[in-house]
Amino acid sequence: MKKINPAKADYQRLRLLSCEELWAEDVPAFDGGDARVRMARVGVVRAVGVVFSERGTSAQKAVARVWLRGLLRDPEEKIRRYAMTALPKIGAGAEDEQALLTLIKAPATDREKKSLNSTLEKIGGAATLEAVSDLPPDARQKLAANVARQADRGAIDLQRPLSAWAGVRIRLHCRRGLEDLLADEVDLVLVAGKKIRRVECWPGGVGLEATAAFCLSDLFAVRCFHTLGFVAEGRPAGSDPRAVAAALASPLVGQILRTFTRGAIRYRLEFGGRGPSKTAVREVADRVHALCPDFLNDPREALWQIMVSSHGGVELRPRFRPDPRFAYRRRDVPAASHPPLAAAMVQLAGGCENESVWDPFCGSGLELIERALKGGVFRLLGSDRSEEATVIARDNLLAALTDPPRFEFQVADFRDFRSFLKSGEISLILTNPPMGRRVPIPDLPELMADLFRVAAEVLRPGGRLVLANPRSEVPVPRSLKRVIRQKIDLGGFDVQLEKYVKLG
Fold first, then answer.
1. The dihedral of CA 50, 53, 57, 59: what is its sign?
2. Is the pTM of this model over 0.85?
3. Backbone φ and ψ of 443, nearest 5°
4. How buried is 493 (Cβ within 10 angstroms: 0-12 exposed, 13-18 middle, 19+ buried)?
5. pLDDT digit string (tens) for 4-25?
6. If residue 357 lies in a helix (H) or strand (E), which one and from where to where?
7. Could you name the CATH architecture of 169-318?
């Protein structure tokens, strides 16, 4: 029989308590105990860091920080170490940094020194950089990133042009199966502008090459991709730290990062697949920082993701919160559409003037909004069985369009369409119906059959039905002719992206 560790069991119990329970009962019991009791209950310190970080208010965290700061002077090393580990979890500040710095010259074991350095790397700033002269290169870089982040978080600049564009290659990544639609949109939006040319297309992406000075806003006029990457090194890089560092320290990368970054250049280094060890990641970051001191490896809210893979080389990916193309998403619903998929569905649907568009499963409204942004819409209609979804869709629509077309949202099952629709009234049904994955649908085959039946009735002649179909076989009325069917990957499972036209 496996022996139960009493200290671990106590911590697991404490971990489930509320902030109020911990503070009212267990913290006073810990404070009032003798040395033996305090050591036996040291898990309280760890629990305060975790529980208050997850469930504490700002006021509760402030009080807990004062308590933890006091424990840094405790005579027991283990209690001091636990307090050091807990402080960063609840947002330690300048006072906590100063309290930790007073311990630098105090006698300590190697284990305590390691905990102290680790905590200072997380919360330290200019004071730590000035006070500690023998920091290892990776720790000094982390602190420099902390200082830069605290002074100015910076941002990705969408409008500044990259004048040194020669040799710049770009990859737009999308859901596998959407690459043809993405390529069509690239040709329509980018290539026509004579700044970018398309050079390749593969399952899940499109490759571009600059032909003139361009801004990030030019690239983000395309809506069907989910990730954009500048190619720093196109050959497989593997995990050789020297090769990766050389690619990142190249003049081309410097031009890209310095042009498109406002503030400090902070990046997060990631390796695809299993990736190398932490030691190798640290070596890459140290080599890059030695060659380019203004490049800071910073996993916390970094502006760039540096992606290294054994098959795709090295890519620089700007990170946005939120994506500027879909900033209208104020709120969402469970199992909501992926915005670039909604944009791709609009691309597939095409358009006509005075369009009347219906989404029978409107959710947060992405498909309707993306279609409205293309223009030529007379009426938008969304229906959903969830009242909350219709409210969210309406709020998102008003955030996306200052002058929206006529719109309405109905709390209704689409099968009850006769209460708000007439036969032959709709020119486009654009919808991403329930897939039965995140939200179970007990009658999915019947639901999809009903959707096609209703579409055949409400679409006018020449009207279109565009949907992501989770069923490979669905009975389709003869009046609906399928013109496109493409398998797409929705993240671990495939569905059919389909377009039908209502016959006259």
1. positive
2. no
3. -120, 45
4. exposed
5. 677 788 888 999 999 999 999 9
6. strand 355-359
7. 2-Layer Sandwich (3.30)
